[in-house]
Amino acid sequence: MGILAVHFLPKGSRKNPLRITDGTYHKGSAELVPDASNIVNRLWIKGGKATSELYTQNITVGALPIQLYYSPRAPITVTVDGVSKTLGIQNIDEAGMHDFLINAAEKLLIPDLCTSGNGIITYKYEYPIKILLEEPASQQMYGVFEDILQVDTDDKDLALELGFKHLYKYSQPIISGSIKPFKGIYKAGEIIRVMIPGINIDADLQIKEVSYNSVPMKPVEITLQLETPERDLSNILKEMAKRIAKLEKTTYADSEGPVEKYVAKEENYKWLEEGEKTEPLRSQEWIFWQEASEKAEPLRIEELMAWKEDAANTAHPLLLPLDSLYPLETLYP
Known about the structure:
Layout: E1 15-21, E2 31-35, E3 42-51, E4 55-61, E5 66-67, E6 73-80, E7 83-85, E8 87-89, E9 100-103, E10 108-111, E11 117-124, E12 126-134, H1 136-142, E13 146-150, H2 156-170, E14 174-179, E15 191-196, E16 201-213, E17 221-227, H3 240-245, E18 248-254, E19 257-263
Parallel strand pairs: 1-15, 3-13, 8-9, 12-19
Antiparallel strand pairs: 2-14, 3-12, 4-11, 5-10, 6-7, 6-11, 9-10, 14-17, 15-16, 16-17, 18-19
């Protein structure tokens, strides 16, 4: 069973304002280790497609559809006997409204109003390419380490974007591990600055997981799982065309086909994020109070009581012995 964690971070809160430095975490809890076993600084990207320059194909117009060599991409122009013709899209535009209808998926040019003549069709087409990304600074420091990234897209710009993110993360040793700060508020997905000279860590790391352990009569123990984040290039330059223009690009072909090579040089950028404080729907706060005690006298309750007393004489018969019951003391047996 898989678990998907989705974090909705308000604007401006992706960067945690706290910093983890000496004296802000439990001694001995910083288990952050740079891992250089997965370094990649020469990355081959497979899955993207490039758009060709304008391609011209000769055509002979008749009653039958004309087979094109490639799937056409804009701009598409058709000229017959020196005259430019109109184009529509098959199954979208109605028949009888254009000179030709185009079916890009089937690579067909279908005569409609124009059914004779000789001419040309000019169009662009897509072809699969390999993209090579290199990071010279990492190669000089650690040597050359190659890898292949297979992307499930035909969009070359998107494939290049995915390659940049992969290369940025793995061109340097990956820092991962855990640390236990004394206090603070942390969210999974945030970026936090970690500066611990004793273990040679000075980097922005992403909080992958936050755990709290509560033991009675002891402070809450916070554990952060940290890892080197992926680079969000869209926050550095918004337009892909501008990013590509800043790179050194070389195009050549190898045994598998065309290759576009880019040299990804590290550049320093800075940006500012602004955010508004949003009041929570519910909040928990500590409430302090003071108690005092004092001696209190019991309450006196006045009661009225009434009763009646009667006197009575009680007589009982009493039997007394006679004086002659016992013999005289002078009598002896």
